[in-house]
Amino acid sequence: MRKNPLFSRENKLIFLEKSVIALLFFFLPCCSPKTGWVYQEVKTKPITSNSANLRIPVANPFNGLELQFLKGTFGTRAYLSVQAREIPPQANDPVAIIVDEQPYSFATTRMEGDQRLLLPEDATQLLISALSKNQRVTIAAPGGFYSEIPPKMFGKLYRKLSKVRVCETDQVDLNETADERR
After folding, report:
1. Which CATH number is correct for 38-169, 2.60.40, 2.40.10, 3.40.50, 1.20.950?
2. Which residue has the higher pLDDT, 159 or 59?
3. pLDDT for the residue 48
4. Is residue 23 scored above 90 in pLDDT?
5. How many CB atoms lie within 10 A of CB 45?
6. Which of 149, 159, 156, 133 has the alpha carbon at shortest distance from 57?
7. I need a labelling partner for 111 at 20 to 30 A (CA). Which of 12, 19, 38, 180 fits?
8. Helix/strand/coil (H, E, C) string of 53-107?
9. Three-state DSSP state, 27
10. CA 179: distance to chain centroid?
11. What are phi and psi of 176, to 5 degrees?
12. How far is CA 124 from CA 22, 34, 57, 82, 131, in A?
């Protein structure tokens, strides 16, 4: 009985090779990191524990910055975070925000652990305004950390974050009595 050349050992190996390559291309997108904005919301009763989080994940874990907008009873704050190492504590070395090639410089508050920076209110407002207008934004921090922040979908998701109901502390004077508020 004569063997069919289609089922030869050589042809089986070629078929197996091509199958593995095809499967790699099929599953590769599942392994790549997300590069778009991520929105998360926590709704509770009472609403004083509500919060919302809008962030753009780090594209490069070694020198990239994650930008995060966090809304809670404290208002809306913006943070920059790194993953691989600490941000060096260099005095007088501000964060640079570049909006459509126009540079701005801001002093930040270093958070415990040296991997997170709190941006000041004026920097937060600049970022919200620029990203809502679909402007190009690049952020650089001490230690060679930087990220280009894509504006795509930011406006829509930030409006969603803005609508989250929280009992903000600046709306209530804690020293007032119930009678004085009426």
Report:
1. 2.60.40
2. 159
3. 78
4. no
5. 7
6. 149
7. 38
8. EEEECCCCCCCCCEEEEEEECCEEEEEEECCCCCCCCCCCCCEEEEECCEEEEEC
9. helix
10. 43
11. -75, 145
12. 45, 23, 17, 18, 11
Identify the residue whose tokens are 């934004």.
Answer: 137
Q: Residue 119, SS3?
A: coil
Half-sphere exposure of 83 (CA within 13 A, CB side): 12
Strand partners, 38: 55
Mean pLDDT in residue range 124-148: 96
Among candidate residues 8, 59, 10, the one with its CA nearest the CA of residue 37: 59
**Rounded Cα–Cα distance for residues 14 and 7 (Å):** 11
Which helix (H) or strand (E) covers residue 39, if one does? Answer: strand 38-42
pLDDT confidence of residue 84: 84
> 158: which 2 tokens?
């930030």
Average pLDDT over residues 153-179: 68
Q: How many residues does the chain have?
A: 182
Please state, in angstroms and rounded to a whole number, the distance separating the CA atoms of residues 65 and 149.
9
pLDDT-derived band at 15 (thresholds 50, 70, 90) equals low
Instruction: Name which of 177, 168, 180, 174 is nearest 72 in CA terms.
Output: 168
| Spans of all domains in the chain | 38-169
